[in-house]
Amino acid sequence: MFRFILISLLLCLPQQLLGSDFSLHQQQGRQAGPTLLVVAGIQGDEPGGFNAAALLATRYQVERGNLWVVPNLNFPSIIKRTRGLHGDMNRKFLHLSPRDPEFPAVNRIKKIISDPSVDVVLNLHDGSGFYSPQYIDKLRNPQRWGQSCIIDQVALPGARFGQLEQLSQAVIAQINQQTIDPEHLFHLKNTDTADSDPEMQQSLTYYALNQNKPAFGIETSKSFPTHLRAFYHLAALEGYMQQLGIRFSRDFQLTPQGVKRALKEDILVSFGDGRIRLELHNLRQTLKYFPLPKGDLQFESNNPLVAVIPYRNRYRIHYGNNRLSFLKPQFFDYDQSLDEVEMLIDDNLVRVPFGSRIAVNNSFQVLSPKGYRVNVIGFRKAGQRDENRLPIIRRQLSPEHSIDKDGKIFRVEVYHDKRFSGMVLVDFGKHAKQQLVSLSERTVN
């Protein structure tokens, strides 16, 4: 069953703030246990870490212990695909002027790290090359960071889970049983921060240590594609959770291809209290005359890396580092008098709530009540302004007006007078997915 999860602190923001704040996702297992805080996206050009954290926040279920995830700490930098818009955020945890544009975000994540409930902190990064204790070549040497677990010191005396080196070595042994190539092996990197690395003394993990919180970094190699980086991040995360005694399940296969599928499937955004809902995979570059509500735009998503950003006279839909589509809006007052429509789908009569996507083999017909007008985007017939109660087959629809690049998914829009009532998507794809949304779950509460 499709799960639609509230992305707290990201959604329902005014236009100028859409996609700019980071979100905290908290899960509490049925059984008591330690609390792990996972942070990603402190540098916006490291998609392996923040994509892995997004999967951790949305596709894992904790059974014992507690999991807190911040997958998008430096969200503006993620959207801009840059290390940092205002310098390196991971060098702002020792001293920072209140005038720094990132002061509110840094101050807030400090408070989360310092929360008495938090037992352990993990910070996810993508690093250059492959760390090796000995020099092998330009990509494999002690100056590289990729494929390593990072500690600032051997141990944190007096802290629960304070044996940093011992715990990480156990995790590394687990990860290295899952590597798909011998050259992908993980190693431990101790930066010896207090004695020899003043720059690292400004980092998030060192701040956590000074709050008596065991903290670790995970670095996967920037030489890999995003899905492979995310795979190794998740392998490391699962290793740390197992060492801490946190029990969990996930709803996808932990393989490179399983992670690749999970990063693409069922990423949704909705508008107008769920009256419009789009799956983001394979969207056209631009959707024109898109019926959005007047006033400040609000949206919901089931993924914390989705943002909708005003851009000139359009909106850009982002998913992490990727700009997926432009919405060229047509603004309407929204009509609340109708929540669903009857449709004849391949001769089967069904009630379809707005925000749904429905599979069609041959034909469909919208049977909206009297006084409601139907506009099927891509259908053209001379003199026809209302497609209500009109049978429509696939070849009558113009592929260039579909919402997807394959030319198979089309918008069916319903209007009452001059107000927009809602949208249904009809999917003529060979492997069309049916997403009938019940009225109770259409909006996120």
Stretches where pLDDT falls below 50 for ≥5 residues? 1-19
Tell me the CATH superfamily of the largest domain.
Zn peptidases
The outline comes out as elongated
Q: Which structural class best describes the helix and strand composition?
A: alpha/beta
Count of distinct strands: 25
Main CATH class of the largest domain: Alpha Beta
Organism: Malonomonas rubra DSM 5091
Keywords: Carboxypeptidase, Hydrolase, Protease, Signal
GO molecular function, one term: carboxypeptidase activity
Protein name: Carboxypeptidase controlling helical cell shape
Give an overview of the whole structure.
Keywords: Carboxypeptidase, Hydrolase, Protease, Signal. Residues 334-428 form the Metallo-carboxypeptidase C-terminal domain. Residues 1-19 form the signal peptide. This protein has helices spanning 47-59, 75-80, 103-114, 164-175, 193-196, 204-210, 226-244, 256-264; strands at residues 25-28, 31-39, 60-70, 120-127, 130-131, 140-141, 148-151, 187-190, 215-221, 247-250, 268-271, 276-279, 286-293, 299-301, 306-311, 314-319, 322-332, 340-345, 348-353, 357-359, 363-367, 372-376, 392-393, 409-416, 419-427. The chain is an alpha/beta fold. It folds into 2 domains: 15-263, Zn peptidases (Aminopeptidase); 266-441, no CATH class. The strands form 6 sheets. Strands 1, 2, 3, 4, 7, 8, 9 and 10 form an 8-stranded mixed beta sheet that branches. Helix 1 crosses helix 7 (226-244), helix 4 crosses helix 7 and helix 7 (226-244) crosses helix 8 (256-264). Residues 1-19 have low confidence and may be disordered.
